[in-house]
Amino acid sequence: MGFDLSQYATVEERLALFWAANPDGRIHTEIVAGDYVTWICFKAEIYRNASDPHPVATGYAFEERTERGVNQTSWIENAETSSLGRAAANWTLQAGKRPSREEMQKVDRMGGAPAPTGDGPSDAQIKLLRSLKYQGDPRALTKREASAEIDRLKTEHPF
To answer: Does the global pTM surpass 0.70?
Structure first.
């Protein structure tokens, strides 16, 4: 693997940021294309308020069923999760790097590598650390340290 997955936020982390900032928000997902046997495409929409008529962001994701690995049984779920992560990234919840950890796992499965970027924590990691009441300056952490602190704090203060 040519990259460190710990440097990428999970969709779960992005969704935690969304719900912390938008407790009255709404998320909608739907299948927009696919044959339901070998491939699927999901669309996710994110709304700041449940009553908003238009989403603040959308995201799409495509997955194929595979003969082995996680997409042998969970390709539909992976597509839905990825569409949520892309919608969050298309708004303001990028968590530093645009792709989610799940998307980068897909890159790894497909044998690719992303372009390198900086080492500091992402804006989304900083926001999440603050919402989890991190004691200290989160900007002094590396991305990896920020991810570890987020994991630790989430066990102490689950959403």
So the answer is: no
